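Quick illustration, no need to memorize.
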Amino acid sequence: MKLGLNIKLGIAAGLINCAVWYGSARAVGFYSLDVYGYKFYTTLLLLLTGVFISIYFERKSQKGFIEFKPAMKTGVLFTIILSVMLSAFSLIYHKLIVPDAIDFFVSEERKAWLAHNRTLEEVNKYLVEYYIPTFGAFHTLMTTLIWGILLTLLSSAILRKKNPMAPFSEN
């Protein structure tokens, strides 16, 4: 089975993003929130360039022409591959690499909320619902998909080019 260029680019972008995430965590510290900022900006940069490159090369393989729908399919497939890889790495990161990071962030958040005169019940209700590894993985999956689809819409609109020799359909 031959993998398409957009799938190969999605896998490469996922590996690059995971490496940057882990490398920045080692450099800055596993218990720093700056790591998640670096991960977010790396993801946006890889989405923007990867979606654009995927659609561009798909258009190039079709003799310089691509319509909006095939361009969307190409970009969305790249985005799905990248988001699934990041979501899986998020689970691995929070379950195996730094399993106590979430406990650390919860304790820091609890201190901050209690300093602002919140009741302990309010604080615990919020923190129990929000700080779990599966929620982090789901959050990573959904935000990457949403940003990827938005960037795919933009790139598809910019790079589409109809073939003037294509047969006209009256439907």
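DSSP finds six helices and no strands in the chain.
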